[in-house]
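Hi R.,

As promised on Friday, here is the backbone we talked about, encoded as C-alpha cells. Could you run it through your design pipeline when you get a chance and send me back a sequence?
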C-alpha cells in the first residue's frame, strides 16, 4: 500500500483503461507464525 493515495488512484485508473474489472488484494504478515509441524520438528 502506497502512502501517497495519488499513486494508488493513478494505478487504478491505468488498470481501468486497460480493461480490468476487479482488483485482487493479498494480505501478508512480516512475521512467521507458530505452525504446529514446525514446532514438532
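Update: got your reply. Pasting your designed sequence below so it's all in one thread:
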Amino acid at each position: 500500500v502506497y502512502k501517497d493515495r495519488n499513486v494508488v488512484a493513478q494505478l487504478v485508473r491505468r488498470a481501468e483503461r486497460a480493461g480490468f474489472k476487479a482488483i485482487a488484494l493479498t494480505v501478508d504478515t512480516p512475521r512467521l507464525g507458530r505452525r504446529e509441524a514446525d514446532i514438532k520438528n
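One thing I noticed while checking it: The chain has one domain: 5-40.

Thanks again,
M.
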